[in-house]
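Subject: for your reference before the review

Hello V.,

The reviewers asked for a structural picture of the protein, and I figured it would be easier to keep everything in one thread rather than splitting it across files. Below is the amino acid sequence we used in the manuscript, unchanged from the supplementary table.
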Amino acid sequence: MKKTLLAAIAALAVSSTAFAADLPARTYTKAPVMAAPAYNWTGFYLGVHGGGDWFNKSWYLPATPINCGGFPNCVGSNQGDHSASSWLAGVQAGFNYQVGQWVLGVEGQASWTDLRGSNGSLTAPNNVTDNSKTSALATLAGRVGYAFDRFMIFGKAGGAWARDRFWTTAGTGAAPAFVPGTTLQSADSDRFGWMLGIGAEYAFTANWSVKIEYDYMDFGTQRETLQPALANTVAAQYDIRQRIDLVKAGINYRFGGPVVARY
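And here is what came back from the structure prediction:
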């Protein structure tokens, strides 16, 4: 019985092997592996930002005909400087074009702020106070970034604009005719300069990204003619140097197509 069972198993094994040999060979192909989607920064975008800024303004009273009033021995004098910090809020728009990992683009930004500062004149600290205010800022700059998929670092450079107001007020030691704090001369001014910036941006969805950025704006030195604000005051000219720093965080919406997958 035992020999018969072993013979049957051996015969089954031989027949199974022969049957398998007659089956056509199968070819197995490995399915393609899907890699993580590659983010593409190309496209127009709009966004908003908020943060803080600070300025430094240096005032100098030059020896001009307006300031000297015909006195031949008139000389210029340093009037001092002042700094201030404030809030910042605004909008931005731009366009990116990605080539490999490089992202090239242009961006315009407009911001509103309330930077105000003042100092007593160094030549007459108790008689006159110099005052400055910056209420609006704007930049138009080229931008170059390097993308690590959804994360990008960038630098930018371009032109800058500031809306300023400059004025002098009477101090506590001014002539009796001037109440302390009274405006003596004033001027509104549009200043133009250059800017440099650096930042980082992260795309958390296909179209939305967040960024943080630092910008330095330099407006050089410009002569401002402050007009008399009262009947018994005269015009005065000042050479005013201005620099502004910005730190801001923002969010952008990019009008672009879907991400492209790598295989």
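For the response letter, the relevant points are probably these. Strands lie at 37-38, 43-61, 77-99, 102-120, 128-148, 151-170, 183-203, 208-228, 236-255, 260-261. Residues 94 and 107 are 4 Å apart (CA to CA).

Happy to draft the paragraph if you're swamped.

O.
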